[in-house]
Amino acid sequence: MSRTEVLVEARKHGLGCVFVKISKALEDQYMLQNNSESVYNLDQLVGAFCAYPYDNAEFGCDLGKFGAIEYIIELINKLEKLPSNDWIDDKIFWLLAILHHSIRHDGCADNRPIFRRANAVDRLKKLIGSSNILLKVEVLLVLAYIVDEAESKILGKDSNVISFIVEMLKKTVGDSDHQVFVTSGIYYSSTEILKALNHLIINDSNKKIVLENDGLPYLNRMLMSDFSTEEQTIAAKTLFSLAFEKSTREVDAIKDTMEALKSMLEAEDEELRAVSRRTLWELDDSNDGEDDFDVEDDERKHAANKTGIPCLAKCRNKGKVVKKGGMMMMMVTVDT
């Protein structure tokens, strides 16, 4: 029986609920930091629950339905109060990995209100101050999906973590499987790093860190190389967000960025074309003073003239690109 088949059967029996029940039963041993059979069994359970939602959004959603998200946050807080050591850091890291996979999938959007109700931002943000870089990265990957605009400063508290994330992205771009090894049993894909980075750069200081750490050439490579449509679309969205940072235009690689985006104007995927065109429009200094961009009208004009150059159009209440309180919001829905 494959892992997928096991997962299907497990979901039928409410495995998310089972996780909470077993974890609570073994929790006391965790708190004592014993190397007992109970702790070993709980470690195996945590490892499985980290693996299952990695590539399965439905299982990530299940964790929200059975109270697992609230319980994991509570368990992390209990472990946090114990004297810090590698054993504790390891347990917290794996629990954060489960939280990450229960929120990063597009199909897990309903879990965000659960994180908010559990006061996850206040309860997890203290971990950004950890001396363990992987722990700091993992907690930021979780917080990136759940902070609101007023809390976005939290995401820019440690420039070293953002630099580390950019370095991981670079490694995925150079890897044949588009992955980077993190620690035993954990790999990050270019997709999950980019998705989180997209959220992290709502903080303007993080945009600058991405640029200072030469992130732009690697985003260009993703558009110009053999990457999936999903990866290229997320890369284009990241470039769109970076376009709102003025210093982006001063980076040497910006010429390659413009060429890479223009090459995406002939992509088969409609969303990828639309995002690339919006980004080119935003990077064009001649558009200063213009606030909106009509994606649908531009798409029609582009299809008509096939010039490969974005057509600039006034917005007719649809496809707006607007700024709200310092945050960029792409108010465009493209059916694919």
Sheet of most strands = 2 strands, antiparallel
CATH architecture of the domain at 1-146: Alpha Horseshoe
CATH superfamily of the domain at 1-146: Leucine-rich Repeat Variant
CATH fold name of the domain at 1-146, please?
Leucine-rich Repeat Variant
**Global Rg:** 21 Å
Shape: elongated
Cα(first) to Cα(last) distance is: 33 Å
Give the number of helices. Answer: 17
Overall mean pLDDT stands at 80
Strand arrangement in the largest pleated sheet: 1-2
CATH class wording of the domain at 1-146: Mainly Alpha
Which percent bin holds the helix content? Answer: 55-70%
Give the amount of beta strand, in percent.
5-15%
Task: Please describe the topology of this protein.
Layout: H1 3-12, H2 15-31, H3 37-51, H4 57-65, H5 68-80, H6 86-101, H7 112-117, H8 120-124, H9 133-146, H10 159-174, E1 179-183, E2 186-189, H11 190-200, H12 204-212, H13 215-224, H14 229-242, H15 254-263, H16 270-283, H17 295-305, E3 320-324, E4 327-331
Antiparallel strand pairs: 1-2, 3-4
Helix pairs in contact: 2-3, 2-5, 3-6, 5-6, 6-9, 9-10, 9-11, 10-11, 10-12, 10-13, 11-14, 13-14, 13-15, 14-16, 16-17
